[in-house]
Amino acid sequence: MPKFVEYQDGDVEVTSRKPLRGTLELVTDDDDTVDMLLDRENAEWLMSALAEFLIQGEGDDMPKISIGRR
């Protein structure tokens, strides 16, 4: 049976900068935690998928973010 997880506004824990790697904590519906492993490539894929999702919003659900670089 699949488990559903959600992101609850946690930070990405960077475990390495070269190569770029880290984890993102997700929470299951029964309050267990799951760490999603990230590297540069799959983080870019995830950002792309989330952007594709957000641009589907209409009215008040339209995206309100802008991305800048330090």
List unreliable stretches of 5+ residues: none
User: Helix amount, in percent?
Assistant: 10-25%
| Total DSSP E strands | 3
Number of domains: 1
In what range is the share of β-strand residues? 35-45%
**How would the global form be characterised?**
globular
Radius of gyration: 14 Å
The oligomeric state of the chains shown is single chain
**What is the end-to-end distance?**
42 Å
Strand order of the largest sheet: 1-2-3
Order of helical and strand elements: EEEH
Count of discrete alpha- or pi-helical segments spanning 4 or more residues: 1
Mean pLDDT: 90
Structural class: alpha+beta
**Largest β-sheet summary:** 3 strands, antiparallel
Produce a short descriptive summary:
With 70 residues, the chain is of the alpha+beta class. It is 21% helix and 41% strand.
Provide structural commentary.
The chain is an alpha+beta fold and 70 residues long. The protein has one domain. The chain contains one helix and three strands, in the order E-E-E-H. The longest helix has 15 residues, at 40-54. The chain is globular. The chain starts with a strand and ends in a 16-residue tail after the last helix.
Please describe the topology of this protein.
Elements: E1 5-17, E2 20-28, E3 33-39, H1 40-54
Antiparallel strand pairs: 1-2, 2-3
